[in-house]
Amino acid sequence: MAKALRIIFAASEVEGFSKSGGLADVARALPLHLKSLGHDVRIVTPFYRLIPEKHKTSTVVPSMGVPMGNEEIWCAVRHKDLEGTVAGKTVSVPVYFIEHEHHFFRHGYYDDGLHAYPDNASRFGFFSKAVLQTCRALDWIPDIFHSNDWHTALVPFYLKQAQLENADFLKSRSVLTIHNAGYQGGAPGIFRHSLGIPLENFVLEMFEDHGHINLLKGGINFADQVNTVSPGYAAEMKTPLGSHGLYDTYLRKGENFSGILNGCDYDEWNPETDPHLPANFSSGDLTGKKQCKQELQRLFGFAESSSVPLIGMVSRLTMQKGFDYLMPAMLRIMGLNAQVIVLGSGELWIANAFDQLQQKFPKKLGWYNGYNNDLAHLIEAGSDMFLMPSLYEPCGLNQMYSLRYGTLPIVRNVGGLKDTVMQYDESSGRGSGFIFDDPTSEAVSNTVGWAVKTFSERPQHFQQMVEIAMEQRFTWKTAAEKYVALYRKNL
Ligand code: ADP
Ligand code: GLC
Known about the structure:
Distance between the termini: 16 Å
Strand order of the largest sheet: 3-4-5-2-1-6-7-11-12
Radius of gyration: 23 Å
Structural class: alpha/beta
Bound molecules: adenosine-5'-diphosphate, alpha-D-glucopyranose
């Protein structure tokens, strides 16, 4: 049997401890599945302000110096196991938390609610260096440093630097997974000194981007292997339109840039066992789904009718998710014979627009401004359709949850959405969702109209699609095996 690997998984958020989006879900599920495949995987993440209130951690390294530029920053390392279930078996993965009051005891992870923290590059640069220092302090040398997004994009760079300085990590290799190439971690060039980026690395092919530092770009250049979270998005990232300005950087990686579709955590998102729901259900018996719909309608003060389709949405409120063209389409959508429930938090202009719409359509639009995991599960379960009209979508987890709950996704033909949802074919009645191409208000409202019409006028087709959707599986086991192959390719 091939040797078990040692993997250090660095992420700025981990579901159960900290979460703003799908990165957290992946940072929990992928390590648990790698562990269940027999590998020694450990997670490193920041010790944010909210974590100590909810979790009992213990200090494993009371004092650790992290050299940054010309100074040394002192922090501590805490530990707690992450527990989870993989195929019914309990699995646990050690999590190491980097404790540094100034950097991480703040109200937000990345911003104060309105503005990104101006020292984010220093905060996460320090965190990335601390990942290497933690391995040294624990005397545990990984085969693979697996980092995620711009926050930990400096890990591959610091690894290459360390390999020039001493023999500690000579055999280690780095993998950088991009969950969202739209966020690149920009910082003024002056940060070069505190991040320890020498002048010869502050060039166009490496960190330099229009006179600024671009952490993601630098990380891509220094990583042994780069991947993103779906093959569809990987293909888009090699084009000028879909790369957020970095297509030549991705093209330059050649074979060392690929796409691996995320899995869906079917232990957490399973309508047959989901503890967040008033009733459970399966594809064989959808009675519980009807009860979930009723519960949603009751919660939002809607008419409790099973014949009116209910459209759900759970989303970060940001341009990425298609709000620029969805909001102008909302009046037309509210004119359809449908109820709409939106759960989201994020940009103020979008939240304000939903406030106003709700006042106008109190019996048809349910709007919850905030973050609420119970409600997210109920919306996935109780809706008939799930709206996700993203401008771009590296993978998307919500549409996978929707499919599992028999809630047909209405999505745009991009990234991971096009890799996971099958277009409705009116002649055969097959498919698992409703897909549109153009990022326009007209395309999104027409497609919502098409879905509503199908629900009302072709119930047999709709029912058949629900069955097809509920059978789809995107397992983390498959994804984790692909990651292991990617690791081994580099060792
Ligand atoms: P992204 O990571 O781009 O936000 P994904 O679809 O990959 O999109 O993952 C989003 C994750 O965050 C899902 O687990 C979703 O349920 C959750 N989520 C997003 N917004 C909220 C919210 N307001 N309340 C509860 N969960 C949310
Ligand atoms: C990002 C992407 C989302 C993806 C998630 C997990 O937040 O926006 O599409 O599913 O990361 O990889």
